[in-house]
């Protein structure tokens, strides 16, 4: 099949981009032809299809005039529509598979694709079809105030970066995109967590429009190690919704446990200063890590912690931890609990509850035998349910169901 893969970034910016690139590589290895559609950026990986990419925009660094132009692009990008139309004139496409595309590309590209009769698939990396700021998290808490299309609450609570102007743009975007039926035009959503599938249905999307296909792990790279170097680890973005202040509070209660924090983000300096102020000498900030260095850090950890306080989806850090045999302590938030069998390959704890988190950390720290047993159970689970082979089978079945002959039969 000729598969068009749409994502606004064409470099490994974060976890969703890793899923995007890994999925493309998996499909290409099975004989499919993959064509990317993205945004121009000096950090992009090389591709012969970059001539179709939309022009670069950096919303963080844009000046006043650029921001006015950018606001229009968020709502409807004429450039993206033109470039998509050109690609479709010059390339044969069977399926268009969207990942994260809003703002820099926008749903304006749906028009040419629908006119060409190409099925649309959208992987839900976040909750953007339901929430203007995509997180369902604002002012330090989970928020569903926009349920029932009450998107004006985005402006009321300044949900987009604390800015009323930016929140206004996202409010208009949501009202217009839903009024024009863009999100109803998607033939099939891929929910990588059961929680996101259920949330979409709760907000009014038909169950038949949503298919559950979880992320997958490279089980050769993240092989079971059996190592235990005596430390806990957090891997991810250093931002408020990730629950890192709760992690610091928990670390204060168990000073005997070394903790490595891996990643960067807007809270990095604040967290470092807070750890120093509290004299949490057992915490090491490791910065951004990737490749072999990241794998080795994760494989040697005694356990990993996912303290997120927003509706986390299907975090790769949890899957990769389990794959290496590292038990996971995860907050009961979003899709995290469905990945961890409480007491078997890790522990759950209530989000924001530092006392409960410290208790779970202590229980694992004091029993290496328990850690080894949990690690082995987690690794076996990944090799049964989250492999590349299983992911490909599920994805291929979804694509086949959207082929023209099936669509005409209404299946």
Walkthrough of the structure:
By secondary structure, this protein is of the alpha/beta class. It folds into two domains: 2-125 and 187-216 and 388-409, Rossmann fold (3-Layer(aba) Sandwich), CATH 3.40.50; 232-385, Glycogen Phosphorylase B (Rossmann fold, 3-Layer(aba) Sandwich). 41% of the residues lie in helices and 13% in strands. It contains 16 helices and 14 strands. A six-stranded parallel sheet has the order 2-1-3-4-7-8, with helices on both faces. Helix 11 (316-324) crosses helix 14. The longest helix has 18 residues, at 368-385. It is globular. The protein starts with a strand and ends with a helix. 42% of the residues are buried. The model has no long low-confidence stretch (mean pLDDT 94).
Silhouette: globular
Assigned CATH class of the largest domain: Alpha Beta
User: Quaternary status of these chains?
Assistant: single chain
* CATH architectural group of the largest domain: 3-Layer(aba) Sandwich
Query: For the largest beta sheet, what order do the strands appear in spatially?
Result: 2-1-3-4-7-8
Tally of structural domains = 2
Fraction of residues in helix: 40-55%
Order of helices and strands: EHEHHEHEEEHHEHEEHEHEHEHEHEHHHH
What would CATH call the homologous superfamily of the largest domain?
Glycogen Phosphorylase B
Record field, number of beta strands: 14
Q: Please report the number of helical segments.
A: 16
Alpha-beta content class:
alpha/beta
Unreliable segments of 5+ consecutive residues: none
Classify the beta-strand content into a percent band: 5-15%
């Amino acid at each position: 099949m000729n598969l068009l893969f749409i994502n606004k970034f064409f470099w490994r910016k974060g976890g969703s981009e890793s899923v995007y690139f890994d999925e493309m590589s998996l499909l290409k290895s099975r004989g499919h032809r993959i064509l990317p559609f993205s945004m121009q950026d000096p950090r992009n990986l090389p591709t012969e299809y970059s001539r179709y990419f939309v022009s670069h925009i950096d919303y963080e660094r844009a000046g006043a005039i650029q921001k006015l132009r950018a606001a229009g692009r968020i709502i409807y990008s004429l450039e993206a529509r033109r470039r998509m139309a050109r690609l479709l004139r010059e390339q044969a496409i069977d399926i268009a598979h969207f990942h994260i595309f809003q703002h820099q590309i926008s749903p304006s590209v749906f028009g040419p694709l629908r006119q060409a009769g190409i099925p649309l698939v959208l992987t839900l990396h976040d909750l953007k079809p339901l929430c203007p700021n995509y997180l369902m998290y604002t002012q330090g808490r989970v928020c569903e105030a926009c349920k029932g299309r009450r998107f004006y609450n985005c402006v009321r609570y300044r949900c987009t970066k604390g800015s009323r102007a930016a929140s206004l743009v996202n409010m208009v975007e949501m009202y217009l995109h839903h009024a024009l039926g863009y999100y109803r035009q998607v033939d099939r959503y891929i929910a990588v967590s059961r929680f996101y599938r259920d949330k979409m249905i709760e907000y009014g999307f038909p169950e038949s429009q949503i298919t559950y296909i979880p992320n997958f792990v490279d089980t050769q790279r993240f092989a079971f190690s059996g190592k235990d170097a005596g430390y806990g680890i957090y891997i991810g973005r250093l931002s408020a919704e990730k629950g890192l202040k709760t992690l610091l509070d928990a670390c204060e209660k168990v000073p005997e446990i070394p903790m490595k924090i891996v990643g960067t983000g807007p809270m990095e300096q604040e967290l470092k200063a807070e750890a120093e102020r509290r004299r949490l000498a057992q915490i090491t900030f490791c910065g951004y890590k990737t490749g072999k260095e990241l794998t080795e850090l994760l494989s040697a950890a005694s356990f990993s912690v996912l303290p997120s306080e927003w509706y986390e989806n299907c975090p790769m850090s949890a899957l990769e931890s389990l794959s290496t045999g590292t038990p996971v302590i995860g907050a009961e938030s979003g899709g995290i609990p469905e990945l961890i069998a409480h007491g078997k390959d890790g522990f759950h704890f209530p989000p924001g509850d530092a006392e409960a988190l410290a208790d779970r950390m202590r229980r694992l720290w004091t029993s290496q035998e328990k850690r080894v047993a949990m690690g082995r159970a987690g690794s076996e689970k990944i090799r049964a349910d989250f492999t590349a082979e299983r992911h490909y089978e599920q994805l291929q079945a979804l694509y086949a169901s959207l082929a023209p002959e099936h669509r005409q039969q209404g299946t």
